[in-house]
Design brief:
123 residues, Trna Endonuclease, Chain: A, domain 1, four-stranded mixed β-sheet, two-stranded antiparallel sheet, 4 helices, 24% strand, globular
């Protein structure tokens, strides 16, 4: 995938997430585990798919992920809690994950910096 396509997908994700100030991931209803899978782009890495809306996330709650449900993560919580844990576990982030087509995966620090850039300025 070209850098231009990656930037466009990330820009669209950020534009949608800016309004809600949140991202969506899939969480198991019973165990409370999150969807994490082998990265198709990074060798020996796992990826956590995230989406910019609940409706996008819901479309993936089928087949092997049918026991999962979309769960909202505020950008504040992502930056305060998720960033370090995912970084420590060497997990990358799949932006608006799709089963087919262009798959954008970012290092968790790069993704988190992008999220921080859309937070409202505190006065």
């Amino acid at each position: 995938m070209s850098d231009t396509n990656q930037r466009e997908i990330l820009a669209e994700f950020l534009a949608q997430s800016k309004t809600s100030q949140s991202v969506w991931a899939l969480q198991d209803k019973e165990s409370e585990d999150w969807v994490v899978l082998d990265s198709p782009n990074f060798e020996n890495a796992e990826v956590m798919p995230v989406w910019s809306s609940k409706s996008l996330a819901e479309t993936h709650c089928v087949q092997e992920w049918q026991a999962f449900t979309p769960s909202e993560i505020s950008i504040n919580d992502w930056l305060d809690y998720w960033l370090e844990d995912l970084k420590d576990d060497d997990i990358v982030v799949g932006v608006n994950w799709a089963e087919e087509g262009d798959i954008v995966e970012l290092e968790v620090t790069d993704f988190s910096q992008a999220l921080a850039s859309i937070q409202p300025v505190k006065s």
